[in-house]
Design brief:
about 60 residues; alpha+beta; about 15% strand
């Protein structure tokens, strides 16, 4: 979030300009931690959080 904030600042924007945010989690165990960090940016809209682990085949050689 700090990096995204820095990009916004460089462009003359801030988190108030965010209209939508989607987070794709590979581990639902971090769900609460992600929500805690995200809540520190109170101006952001609610997110769509999707667990994607196991949804896509992994090709390993």
């Amino acid at each position: 979030m700090k990096y995204i904030g820095a990009i916004f600042t460089e462009a003359g924007l801030d988190f108030n300009h965010v209209v939508k945010a989607s987070l794709f989690l590979t581990d639902l165990q971090v769900f609460a931690e992600v929500n805690e960090v995200y809540s520190n940016y109170g101006t952001l809209p609610r997110t769509l959080q999707i667990a994607i682990k196991g949804c896509f085949p992994v090709h390993r050689e």
